[in-house]
Amino acid sequence: MRIRKCFRCEKDLDYESYIKNGNSNNIQHLTEIWECDYIELYCCHCYCLKIKYQPKIETEYFYY
Ligand SMILES: [Zn+2]
Q: How many domains does the chain have?
């Protein structure tokens, strides 16, 4: 599995944790997101900041 970094802080994201925190019934969809260069992934910390300050931006997914 490829390495993804948080779009904002560039912390390495862990695929196992990402899957665990997603919907386990939809691993294939989560994997497609993970593999897509056009979708921004965030660590938990940055995601929380983002939804707090930019709640109207809808293109991101989070991990962690
Ligand atoms: Zn981050």
A: 1
List, for residues 5-25, the tens digit of each pLDDT value: 999 999 999 998 888 877 667
* d(CA 44, ligand 1 centre) in Å: 7
Report field, pTM of the whole predicted structure over 0.85:
no
Cα-to-centroid distance, 11 and ligand 1 (Å): 6
Q: How far is CA 54 from CA 9, 24, 59, 62, in A?
A: 16, 27, 11, 14
Cβ atoms 7, 42 nearer than 8 A: yes
Q: From the CA of 25, how far away is ligand 1's center (Å)?
A: 25
Range of the domain at 53: 4-62
